[in-house]
From TrEMBL:
InterPro entries: MFS, MFS_dom, MFS_trans_sf, MFS_Transporter. It is found in: Endomembrane system. This is MFS permease. Belongs to the major facilitator superfamily. It holds the Pfam family MFS_1. Residues 75-462 form the Major facilitator superfamily (MFS) profile domain. GO terms for molecular function: transmembrane transporter activity.
Length: 463
């Protein structure tokens, strides 16, 4: 019997043409060109070199995409819902403060404790996130976080004694801390991560934009008690629970350990990721960045309405519109500028955004006209918006993937601290000096953010 040999000729790729294997783990090359020299870089593996057709331990894997695997579409959709719920919860408290003061007959100082307690939950989440991921995987987060939201909103809807409200907000902070670290670390390893991060965080801003409008409409126009708003939040959290559990059910602790086994032989050691993350300079820089950034975001978003009323002497309606303009600008900036940041890189883009924010803040402060201030605030939101997801991306690129959850979780806990401490400080000073103190404080914080950003190490390009 004669044998026929069939020769397959593969044309060499065009000059400059390459195939990029997505955004890979930072510990490996971000892309590899398949061309005439690719065989020289990687040893040839014959059929007998790897029995059972199992990939070698150091094999490159393609990054996940928003639609690959297909289940990621549902996962991302309900991650967006979870972030929208966090934004709704955070922003509604400020809108309901006057009604809480009246209902419980308490002073502003005591009522403001409700802003501070979520930090406790965030801090606990920062030091337990790694353990939860190793033991329970993303499924554990998908179960625990919505339950925290349900407990909090059910308690608030029952309008218990005020100390119970303070404690319940710590529970919601724990749930938010879990989802922040889990979903930001997960999305950060995806293809086109900057764009997806932008949409993820814009959902938070959209929740923060609409919840005060909904809450105040229910109380003022509907004549309903303040706690009626939390019936809506219970329904949203029930939807969040059903969706997250459905789509993340297969992401167990065993799956998480397997995904990280190559990067960290000690992945199953409790707390190892947290200890390593705490030793990194990048983790602390990211934490300081978020600390100042959340101070600007929550401080400006929470006090701009009062500033417009008392300093710019605008009407209540116009002042409310200016506050909504800030959150709308932030949502739009995160959705739109994510594409720009993806194209030109985080370091350059965020430096430009920060320079623009410094100019806008000076314009807001020094030009005593309401229209100019309202426009400046809206554009401040627009250019501040993409900084949070951009900093998450840079941190993910600079740190090994095995400590992403721990590092980002700790940094976000520090951000939560800034988001509670600085609004409280602004209020305390404003009670004696007037709400105009908002301006120099925000300007100083933006300058701190810029200094911290320029202190980040440069991302080393890999061949």
């Amino acid at each position: 019997m004669s044998t026929t040999t069939t020769a397959l000729q593969v044309a060499p790729p065009l000059v400059g043409e390459s195939i990029e294997l997505g955004h890979l783990d930072p510990s490996v090359s971000s892309g590899r060109q398949l061309g005439p020299d690719s065989n020289a870089e990687s040893p040839h593996v014959s059929a007998g070199d790897n029995e059972g057709d199992e990939p070698p331990a150091d094999a490159l894997t393609e990054a996940e995409r928003w639609n690959r695997p297909v289940k990621n579409i549902g996962r991302l959709a309900f991650a967006f819902v979870s972030f929208a719920i966090a934004g709704m919860n955070d922003a509604a408290v400020g809108a309901l403060i006057p009604y809480l003061e009246e209902y419980y007959n308490l002073s502003y100082t005591v009522i403001s404790l409700i802003f501070l307690t979520p930090f406790v939950g965030y801090s606990i989440a920062a030091f337990t996130n790694a353990r939860i991921h190793v033991r329970l995987g993303q499924r554990g987060v998908a179960i625990m976080a919505p339950i925290c939201h349900l407990i909090t909103f059910a308690a608030l809807a029952s309008h218990p004694p005020y100390p119970a409200l303070v404690v319940c907000n710590a529970i919601s902070g724990f749930g938010n801390g879990l989802t922040d670290a889990c979903f930001c670390a997960w999305v950060g390893a995806m293809d086109k991560a900057n764009t997806i991060q932008g949409f993820l965080h814009s959902c938070y801003s959209l929740g923060a934009l609409f919840s005060p409008l909904i809450a105040t409409s229910m109380v003022v126009k509907g004549g309903l008690p303040w706690y009626t708003f939390y019936y809506l939040m219970i329904g949203m959290s029930g939807l969040e629970f059903a969706g997250l559990v459905m789509f993340f059910w297969d992401k167990t602790g065993a799956v998480y350990r397997e995904e990280h086994a190559r990067e960290n032989a000690d992945a199953g050691t409790a707390g190892a990721g947290t200890r390593e993350a705490m030793k990194s300079k990048v983790t602390w820089l990211c934490a300081l960045f978020f600390f100042a950034y959340m101070g600007v975001e929550v401080g400006l978003g929470g006090w701009v309405v009062t500033f417009m009323l008392r300093v710019r002497h605008a009407s209540a309606y116009a002042s409310g519109v200016s506050g909504s303009g800030f959150w709308a600008g932030m949502a739009l900036g995160r959705a739109v500028l994510g594409f720009v940041t993806e194209r030109f890189g985080e370091r350059l883009c965020l430096a430009i955004y920060l320079g623009i924010c410094l100019g806008l803040q000076l314009l807001f402060w020094l030009v005593p006209q309401f229209v100019v201030s309202a426009v400046a605030v809206a554009f401040l939101g627009f250019f501040l918006g993409p900084m949070f997801p951009g900093a998450v991306m840079v941190t993910a690129k600079l740190l090994p993937k095995r400590i992403h959850v721990s590092a980002i979780g700790f940094a976000m806990a520090m951000g939560g601290t800034g988001g509670t401490v600085f609004p409280f400080i602004i209020g305390a000073i404003a009670s004696h000096k007037g709400v105009s103190v908002l301006q120099p404080i925000v300007l100083a914080l933006i300058a701190v953010i810029a200094a911290v950003w320029l202190s980040f190490p440069r991302i080393q390009k890999r061949d």
